[in-house]
Write a structure and sequence with these properties.
Two copies of one chain form a homodimer.
Chain A (H helix, E strand, L loop, with lengths): L4 H11 L6 H11 L4 H16 L2 E2 L6 E2 L13 E8 L2 H10 L4 E5 L17 H9 L7 E4 L5 H17 L4 E4 L15 H9 L5
Parallel strand pairs in A: 3-4, 3-5, 5-6
Antiparallel strand pairs in A: 1-2
Chain lengths: 202, 202
Amino acid sequence: MRIPKAITNLVESFERLPGVGPKSAQRLTFYLLHVPQGELDKFALSIQKLKVDTVICSICQAVDESDPCSICSDDRRDKTMICVLEEPLDVLALEKSGKYKGVYHVLHGRIDPLNNIGPEEIRIQQLMDRIRNKDLGIREVILATNPTMEGEATAMFIAKQLKSVNRELRITRIGRGLPTGADIEYADSTTLDQALSGRMDY
Amino acid sequence: MRIPKAITNLVESFERLPGVGPKSAQRLTFYLLHVPQGELDKFALSIQKLKVDTVICSICQAVDESDPCSICSDDRRDKTMICVLEEPLDVLALEKSGKYKGVYHVLHGRIDPLNNIGPEEIRIQQLMDRIRNKDLGIREVILATNPTMEGEATAMFIAKQLKSVNRELRITRIGRGLPTGADIEYADSTTLDQALSGRMDY
């Protein structure tokens, strides 16, 4: 039995998604066979419109409906403080916490030599341009890349670049230590080490 | 920051898929933001065309490009033997083994009272119609529903129905026991029990 082309096409599309293997791709495709055509059309339309109806903010590189984005064009935000993040999704996570009042800069990736991603492949240049622009008066940059090997390397690289551009700039790394709800018994030694050196006075 | 509508739409569509939670749906959506528009259009088209370009075979209820499907219209297949399966995907799995030369019947589900799926919701009636049609001369029905509680119940229900329709029909259940590559040490007791009672002479 030859598998219908309509099915293999969709299986192949699903397989390209991260974390979806050949078996899950098949399962998702055959699941969709039981879904009404109206739902499929809606799904298809939302994929087609994803990039058409969104723009990347020319200031902070976040994904939004307008350029500049709703954060960069908000007068109540502190424009002198930039939080540097790896992905657009990270902005949503930080916004959910509701504590941060500065603006963002999204790198759209991390320096990852093993996957051929160098500093030119991510949006570091745009960050440097913001820092160099004296009119903006940036005072602090919080490096909030992920606490992974690649994220740390990216933060270190950017910190070095920033220092060479502006010596008065405050450059910080997002706090490291035990996350809420963690258990010291199960914490790894690197995290405990960083939790100790990052201890704070009451 | 309000999340753009184009993004929430796609996140919601992904969330409806089985095994995709809110976090994975977000991750998949933001992954697609880095994918070229051409690929997105292809993905969208394959979703839209999935049901348009496939039909359900009026004989065996399998999903194919033509009706009757390539198996039901193949003269080399033994039309007197029907293998009953839960899902269209199961046909592909059996065809891959390449051993089975009969035809199929796809139920499109299983009897599952906890989820309000009774015998009328799956395609048992169409199977009975095939059995009742004396011109087809069906000799054997292999019940190959999944070895789960719902699959077993479905097989038992169908076996009872079949017996009442045709007393001469051979009704079999797909063999149960240890799968290739399994380890007796780790096998569960039900499987071992069935492997023993299903033992075969050398």
